[in-house]
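Researcher: We're reviewing a set of sequences before deciding which ones to prioritize for further study. For each one, I'd like a predicted 3D structure that I can look through quickly. This is Peptidase M11 gametolysin domain-containing protein. If possible, include the structure in token form so it fits the rest of the review sheet.
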Amino acid sequence: MKRIFIGLAVLFGMSTLLFAVRHRIAEAETKMEGELEIVHIDNFESQSAKEEYYLNALTGRRIKILLPKRQKIPKPWSRVEISGVERSGELQVGSLEVVGRGGTSESTGQLGMVPAPHQKIHKLAVIRVNFQNDKRRPNVLGTLRTNLFVGKNSVKKYFEEASFGKLTLEGYEKKDGDQYGWYTLPQKSSPCAVMNWKDAAFRLAAADGFHAENYDSVMIWFPLNPACIWNGVAMMGGSPAVSWINGSQISWVLAHELGHNLSLNHASMYRCVDASGKSVSVSNTCTSVEYGDLFDTMGSGTLFHFSSYAKSRLGWYAASDTQTISTDATVTIHPVEYPSSGAEVVRIPRGPNDAYYLEYRQPYGFDAPLKNISVVSGLSIRIAPMDLSLASRSYLIDTVPATAGNPWDAALMPGKIFTDADHGISIETVSASPESITVKITFAH
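Model: Here's the predicted structure for Peptidase M11 gametolysin domain-containing protein, in token form for your review sheet.
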């Protein structure tokens, strides 16, 4: 009996050791190389969003990756080398290194300060789909065509105005937009497996002449699906860049997701407090309000112009439109909505990575509803990266923190001074007119 007991103990010990060895092998660090894919998931009702990251490996595998909290996010579709541990089909990243530009289109816009030399025609297709358990076919063809392509306040008109005529939307087959469907996907409406839906939609539309390579963006539209607790999902860049729209026909929602396709991140807002808990404009204790920048389509629920930071990322400004200030200066800034012979983007470095972006608005075009808002009489200040190639968001600064619950009055009005004591920067709005705003910038010496 004793021998049997000893034998069982040895056998148990060997089994435990074998399990541990297998577990360690399964969790051994692995290295993979490929292109970085970034996907945005937007829930406007709950004012929440999520960003997911995937590696499109050179082996052909697509794997979800979990990045460290403080990881600097490279631009979408960068060629990266990743080391990490794979668990349950996800890769927990230990290190990430950019090793080059990917072969996939990083953006359907132009990232950085290099201006677009002529108008780019952004080819867009819409594919309307439903599901095995939900075969509704709402009559949305005309509304989508109007709101995307042909209406006076369409997404096409918005992009043409916001880009100073450097970007427009068309279909590949038709100037007034290509739409395919209806198609019933072979999947049910839950789970919300958007990549599977995309693959099936592309296959079904191919029978009607759809070719993905003809488009910069493809929008997959389906009737409102309660199983998907989001309004839209969008890839940042891609060939093509794909978005999924959960039942919305609203121009702003469609433009917002296309903004992600252009590789734009969210326009957020900072809410900051000092050591005593009092609201202040900027401090070391700030929280981010996801869609808090009400003056930017990538934040608000309205088709307002992209910020000067976002337009800079897309290459819609010439070099003469931008000034970088690092010594005491008084500058004149022209409105962001239309071309000017003077500066429309002024940025002030606040360290090695970030800058203050200064901007002026006027009630012109898509910004006309702002005519009674203080933003058209004062200076807007945002924090965003100096490196325009990074897929980072901007943060609107509330220069009137006493009314922290009212972001509409965030602008710095004439006679007011914003001070960042930690970085030794003071910004004063001197005067404002419909043509320009004058700002005095001083540095602590």
